[in-house]
Design a protein that fits this description.
about 625 residues; globular; alpha+beta; 9-stranded mixed β-sheet; 4-stranded antiparallel β-sheet
């Protein structure tokens, strides 16, 4: 869908019904559809006698003709998902799910139902604007030859937290029927407004015994965007007992508990639950239930254009099986026959995270020696939460001051500044000294720094104080103004302020074996990346050689969190389980002296008794 269409809608209509009338009227006009009976649709048709509204409609149709060749059902669904306000999108996490994904999930869930589909009850418990229900209804019509009137009344069920989403689902399904010649005066829908976390289906549906199929795309709302009410509602679900769970996590338990015996759930959702702390309780739930579970993992591919998320398809049948099936692919290969790997639940570790790729080799690596997390301490860099205020590259200096250019030119006392590097930018081709910047450091010069007294700060470093005071409004807006700081000029977090003599810098993420830089300057700070601290220079030198091997990167590619462009996370929780093999004194000497990377790769593969593909 072209941006000009969206921009037109943004500026031309503000209320949901205004937007819906505009979209529905344009759709009917562009597709030459006449609605003669259905009263619900007729209420959304703009008549020529409504001159102002009709004038806007004419301009909208003109915009559509310029920007969009076809305005079919998929374009309609995409527009409906787009015109949710940005604020509401954070609340309900709605995104447009491409047709081929919906069709694949519907096909797989329908195929699992060996009996006739004519009485199958299908639900989407976070239905958004109804894309999944549209696809399911279309397939039910083809396979059962029933009328849409009966399908909507007896077989299709939906729930969403936003009332306009329910309205749009009704509009979409009604249009589906009308498009295929079924222009009934009224359709009876089982579509409800409500919060899935607390909704009681048995209060709405007589003789409710559960659904045969639940499908959909649970909401993409991160923990930090959840309201306090939602957080309290999450707490009642078993799968939300670890970390700060995102909103999609409880939808698995809710969906499974709403299924009848041998019912099936088909979701496309985030794949972060494989390894994250937030997914620990969900993993334990899956292992305890031991359900028939197929995962199609898209890894680092981004299926949704509007969301920076990494997803998988989960097909879960409510019947016992002691193993799950896993396959990693890309969305283009979905129609093909995929050959999954069988993984026994008993071999998975819900606490550490699920290793689903090359499980035998990964298990061998993790069971070798001692876990990285037990031997080494990692730390993130300082977090000012306003780096553009505190961190700078001097444009000039004299005996007493560095000069900072930030709108105006500010002199900053040298004695309140420290050297700092962005460890995400370190590489074998970049010298550490070339990356050094300055950071205004309003803390004492001690091993464990304390925030300066404000009067002391103002008196002894008046220029730095004056500069930061001019940025006070920006500093107070950190954490959306919701967090109280020790003083307004304090950093956003207190991490990594203390002096550390030996540290090995490395980036938070990388798309290849990263550069590890060892530094012994206790006063040098870092930001944006990570470091190993608390070890001797010799220990750091040895672990550096191991982390630069093909073996370690092989492990990261199969166990860590993926990002776009084949980047993977190097955060501590993704490397803590990597096994560190024990080395004899002579082996340590060899590792420290050997410079040939291929020989070191071969040496460590032999130590781990592994031959990498």
């Amino acid at each position: 869908m072209k941006n000009e269409v969206f921009k037109f809608l943004e500026k031309s209509a503000t209320q949901p019904k205004q937007v819906d009338r505009l979209i529905i009227s344009a759709f009917l006009s562009k597709n030459n559809i006449t609605v003669t009976k259905n009263k619900f649709l007729q209420d959304f048709i703009i008549q020529e006698k409504s001159k102002k509204e009709y004038e806007i409609l004419t301009k909208f149709i003109s915009t559509l003709e310029k920007e969009v060749g076809k305005f079919g059902a998929e374009e309609l669904i995409e527009i409906f998902e787009f015109v949710i306000s940005p604020a509401d999108r954070i609340v309900n996490g709605a995104v447009y799910t491409p047709l081929y994904i919906r069709e694949y999930i519907v096909e797989k869930t329908f195929f699992s139902k060996k009996e006739s589909l004519s009485e199958t009850k299908i639900a989407d418990i976070s239905c958004g604007c109804g894309g999944f229900l549209y696809t399911a209804a279309t397939q039910l019509k083809k396979r059962t030859k029933q009328t849409y009137f009966d399908i909507f009344k007896n077989q299709i069920f939906g729930l969403d937290i936003q009332p306009y989403s329910i309205t749009r689902t009704k509009l979409l399904l009604t249009l589906l029927a009308v498009l295929e010649g079924e222009d009934s005066e009224v359709f009876h829908f089982n579509l409800f407004k409500g919060d899935s976390l607390t909704f009681q289906w048995d209060k709405k549906i007589q003789n409710f015994f559960g659904f045969d199929i639940i499908l959909g795309n649970p909401p993409y709302v991160g923990a930090k965007h959840l309201s306090e009410i939602t957080k309290k509602r999450l707490a009642k679900w078993e799968v939300c007992k670890s970390g700060n769970p995102d909103l999609y996590i409880p939808f698995f338990q809710i969906g499974i508990e709403l299924l009848q015996s041998s019912g099936i759930l088909g979701f496309i959702t985030m794949n972060s639950f494989f390894k994250s702390l937030n997914g620990r309780a969900l993993r334990a739930y899956f292992q305890r239930c031991s359900l028939k579970f197929d995962i199609i993992d898209f890894g680092a591919e981004q299926v949704f254009r509007a969301k920076n998320t990494y997803t998988c398809i989960c097909l879960i049948e409510k019947s016992h099986q002691d193993f799950m099936q896993y396959v990693k692919t890309n969305s283009k290969d979905l129609p093909k026959d995929l050959i999954p790997t069988k993984i026994k639940y008993a071999g998975l570790n819900s606490k550490k995270g699920w290793n689903l790729q090359d499980i035998e080799l990964i298990t061998k690596i993790e069971s070798t020696g001692n876990a990285f997390g037990k031997l080494f301490k990692t730390r993130h860099g300082i977090a000012t939460l306003r780096n553009e205020v505190y961190i700078f590259r001097p444009v000039d200096e004299d005996d007493d001051f560095y000069y900072l250019q930030n709108g105006s030119l500010y002199p900053i006392e040298k004695d309140i500044c420290k050297d700092i590097v962005n460890s995400n930018k370190l590489s074998s081709s970049v010298r550490l000294n070339d990356l050094k910047e300055k950071v205004i450091f309003p803390y004492s010069d001690e091993e464990k720094p304390r925030l300066l007294n404000e009067d002391f700060f103002r008196t002894n470093y008046p220029h730095a104080y004056f500069y930061l005071a001019g940025k006070k409004k920006l500093l107070k807006a950190r954490d959306k103004g919701s967090r109280k700081y020790e003083k307004w000029f304090a950093f956003g977090r207190t991490q990594s302020l203390e002096k550390v003599k030996n540290k090995m810098f490395f980036p938070k993420m990388s798309n290849k074996t990263p550069s590890y830089i060892i530094n012994t300057d206790e006063n040098l700070l870092f930001y944006n990346g990570c470091a190993i601290i608390g070890s001797t220079q010799k220990e750091l030198a040895i672990i550096k050689k191991l982390l630069e091997t093909k073996l370690f990167w092989y492990y990261i590619e199969r166990t860590s969190k993926p990002y776009s462009a084949q980047y993977y996370s190097l955060n501590g929780n993704y490397i803590n389980n990597f096994g560190i093999c024990e080395l004899s004194p002579s082996e340590k000497k060899y590792v420290l002296s050997e410079r040939d990377k291929n020989k070191l790769d071969a040496f460590f593969e032999k130590k781990y008794n592994i031959s990498l593909p």
